[in-house]
């Protein structure tokens, strides 16, 4: 953990786990049934730091996705949706984790749904502003090609880092998603975009992202899924979650007003008030001191 800043959020809960093909940075806290939390593209486990204290009674397992945050990718060819899900499932098996519920933000919501098709113990999925819609119009044609071109250049990650790592740029980026987060949160994102490896991993994920097969299978995903949207989200409009919930056999849609894409950082208590009753209703319950679920 030499690269991990000494004041990184929840550093005391950090572990480095070597599980092929990656060297994973994972934060684990709490006791109880396992909940797996997956961040979105360009973020890291730190983004769940405000939410974690609001989810008591569970063991919360929060990895940095391959190539992002402080997880060192073992290869740049396994950063797509299916590959990430396969490698996270292998990590869970290797460590003996049995996530009863998977919670994902943005692109992590798509990874959570893909994982639910793989992990046998998953009983529920929660997506927070889950990125379950293709880009529209010209962006849908241009963005994947642009990301592939950027990822292919050895010079682009350094240029992106130089151009985007200023505090003002990070604040504007967060604001463009409809969110207002703490100064500590801005500092964490600023540190991330200052790291070339993180930028390379994020670009690689974007370049390899193939969402359409998962979207086509939504009607076959039978376990309960809660999709939480934010009314002011400018990155993933609420309609994406609403329409996806309608396609899922046990899909539930909930919307929070007044917040943007990073709602789990802006309003963690309100997000938790939606998550906890949902996962507990699916049987993912907190054992009391006598060992009886309640």
Fold topology:
Blueprint: E1 14-19, E2 22-29, E3 34-38, E4 59-63, H1 81-95, E5 101-105, H2 107-116, E6 124-128, H3 137-152, H4 156-164, H5 167-176, H6 183-193, H7 196-208, H8 212-217, E7 225-230, H9 238-247, E8 251-256, H10 263-266, H11 268-281
Parallel strand pairs: 3-4, 3-5, 5-6, 6-7, 7-8
Antiparallel strand pairs: 1-2, 2-4
Helix pairs in contact: 1-2, 3-7, 4-7, 5-6
Indicate the low-confidence ranges by residue numbers: 136-143, 153-159
What share of residues is helical? 40-55%
Q: How many angstroms separate the termini?
A: 38 Å
Q: Beta-sheet strand percentage?
A: 15-25%
| Annotation field: number of helices | 11
Question: What's the β-strand tally?
Answer: 8
CATH class of the domain at 11-134 and 211-281: Alpha Beta
**Series of secondary-structure elements, N-terminal to C-terminal:** EEEEHEHEHHHHHHEHEHH
Major beta sheet, strand line-up: 1-2-4-3-5-6-7-8
Biggest beta sheet attributes: 8 strands, mixed
Average pLDDT taken over every residue: 88
Describe this structure in words.
The protein has a domain at 11-134 and 211-281: Alpha/Beta hydrolase fold, catalytic domain (Rossmann fold, 3-Layer(aba) Sandwich), CATH 3.40.50. Helix content is 40%, strand content 16%. The protein is built from 11 helices and 8 strands. It has helices at 81-95, 107-116, 137-152, 156-164, 167-176, 183-193, 196-208, 212-217, 238-247, 263-266, 268-281; strands spanning 14-19, 22-29, 34-38, 59-63, 101-105, 124-128, 225-230, 251-256. The longest helix has 16 residues, at 137-152. Residues 136-143 and 153-159 have low confidence and may be disordered.
